[in-house]
Amino acid sequence: MITAKDLYKRYRNTVAVDNLSFEVRPGVVTGFLGPNGSGKSTTMRLMLGLDHGEGETLFDGERFSSIRRPMNRVGTLLEAKPFHPTRNARNHLKLLGSANGVSDARIDEVMELVGLGPVKRKKPKGYSLGMAQRLGLAQALLGDPKILMLDEPTNGLDPHGIHWMRDLLKKLADEGRTIFVSSHLLSEMQLMADELVVIGKGSMLYNGDVDQFVREFTQSTVVVRSPSATEFAERLEVKGATVVKGSEGELVISGMEIDAVGHLAFTEGIELAELSRRSASLEEAFMSATGASEEFVATEPPTSATQKPGGADHA
Fold it and tell me: What is the pLDDT of residue 229?
């Protein structure tokens, strides 16, 4: 269990983390979300005592700085390439593991686990970003910890690597470990995470179940197709539903649950070729929840006065 209480950090006139409190439970993957500049990395550093601030974080009842062999309790990945420039990858892990009683066999085991066995004798300064992320994960797993804190672990991974990372973290959670992971890949987070901590401008926006987050910040719709779409749309609107007409007899309905739509079609004698619920995505919920907290807002590029239709410039 991770318990964070009243975490606070100020940089001069800017509050980076504003009294955050939350728990990360074992046995589930907890996603940590927020726009760029929202304070996610600063929060993680505060939790580990790497930044000075206020508040307290306990890992199974202890501060990180009080744990005698922290690598055996809490595995962390905060940056992709914090490696010694002259050591090979295996020796880099051996150096880190020596103070925590990690065996050579365990070092080889985790390097195979993350797919770096064939290149463990190479210097990581020549690794790609994706390989560096795998080595960082190997470092986090070195002491076989029960708690993992990972900041953007899929950054730089190809689609196969992202799929592998997702399956690995879910497997580790199924073993009863506590997984706290940040990511901007919301489609992956929707597949991987069970619970969420969502922040904006350093403040808590949401803490709880993923599905509840989507329901709270979006509206699901009901989709029907019918040869009597126009007639059915009128009946739905009389009942207070909002209806958007599509092609080939499709209606997208909001403001009415799927059971009520089906019942209305039955009682009115309306033939339906399709009746389904269309749920919103985590990305849609995230955009809705954090829109007011976005720090870096881009503007639309200006349209050139000399630009002609078709995209060609003419003198």
Answer: 94
